[in-house]
Design the sequence.
């Protein structure tokens, strides 16, 4: 759900809603970045790191949805830049998350199987683990790119410019 | 994947947020587009695309939630989430079935290749021993999930879904497009 906007007799203005909603969506996405990264640096992430990656993906999707509604508060070039960066990180997060989900499902299935039946499922899990290794490298690079380009700072500045108030 | 319709041109950045609420109808229209196709269980792509469209609709309604009637928003979001979850379960099953089918084919080819070597090297078990019954079981589960979804969707009925979401929007159109 979006943040609670200050209760007032005045109607909520589009630009104010854009500022509050986009800032909140961005913060929700980025607060999971450290834990997501920790889970990417090893082959078998902890359950909380898996959840962090999932939450970061949900956050990035919500941010994209909010950007698509509030696009007109930005200049074209500001919007295009931010949208592309958020889309890229969403794509990289999704690739890893989908593999995590499939591996979790297969682990639960294989745990209840006799050895001969679990054999094929375990081979599939190993193949998915290799795919995850490739995708987590891609995601690590994408996260590192956000850091190096000071994405958090740029996003805050762009949003302040677009909605008329400093963060 | 279904591409989202650009909605920003319908928004009014210098007006109250509520003036831009008609964008919800665009997202609702994206869900509605798949209403006829999802009556056929074989339309895997359309079922998936409707799920994505429902997700976009839910996020968009949530963005406008602070300026919409609270009780109606809550029940509408619950209805959209229900649609999304039902379609999500079908999509997960479809994804797993496709993955299992692909894996069976791949493992059988590998086992055949190893068996035909001068010094045949057989695995301890054949991969299909577990994968084949698992795939059959998942196909059965998918069938049940789809039947559950279809019965739920038809009983709503879909026109009532349209009306419920439309009612959130000022100056709504209560009739869905043909």
Sequence:
């Amino acid at each position: 759900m979006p943040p609670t906007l200050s209760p007032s007799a005045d109607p909520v203005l589009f630009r104010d809603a854009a500022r509050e909603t986009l800032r909140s969506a961005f913060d929700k996405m980025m607060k999971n970045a450290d834990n997501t990264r920790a889970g990417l640096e090893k082959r078998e992430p902890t359950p909380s790191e898996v959840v962090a990656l999932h939450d970061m993906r949900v956050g990035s999707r919500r941010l994209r949805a909010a950007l698509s509604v509030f696009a007109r508060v930005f200049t074209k070039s500001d919007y295009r830049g931010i949208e592309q960066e958020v889309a890229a990180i969403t794509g990289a997060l999704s690739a890893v998350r989908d593999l995590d989900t499939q591996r979790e499902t297969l682990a639960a299935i294989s745990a209840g199987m006799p050895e001969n039946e679990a054999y094929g499922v375990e081979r599939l899990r190993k193949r998915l683990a290799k795919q995850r290794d490739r995708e987590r490298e891609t995601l690590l690079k994408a996260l590192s790119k956000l850091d190096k380009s000071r994405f958090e700072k740029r996003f805050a500045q762009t949003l302040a410019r677009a909605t008329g108030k400093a963060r | 994947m279904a591409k989202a319709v650009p909605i920003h041109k319908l928004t009014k950045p210098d007006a109250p947020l509520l003036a831009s609420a008609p964008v919800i109808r665009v997202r609702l229209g994206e869900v509605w587009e798949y209403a006829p196709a999802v009556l056929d269980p074989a339309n895997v792509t359309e079922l998936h695309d409707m799920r994505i469209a429902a997700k976009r609709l839910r996020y968009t309604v949530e963005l406008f939630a602070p300026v919409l009637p609270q009780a109606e928003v809550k029940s509408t979001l619950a209805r959209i989430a229900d649609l999304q979850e039902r379609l999500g379960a079908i999509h997960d099953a479809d994804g797993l079935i496709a993955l299992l089918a692909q894996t069976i084919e791949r493992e059988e080819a590998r086992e055949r290749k190893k068996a035909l070597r001068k010094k045949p090297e057989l695995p301890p078990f054949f991969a299909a021993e577990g994968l084949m019954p698992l795939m059959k079981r998942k196909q059965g589960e998918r069938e049940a999930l789809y039947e559950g979804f279809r019965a739920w969707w038809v009983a709503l009925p879909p026109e009532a879904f349209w009306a419920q979401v439309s009612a959130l929007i000022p100056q709504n159109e209560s009739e869905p497009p043909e």
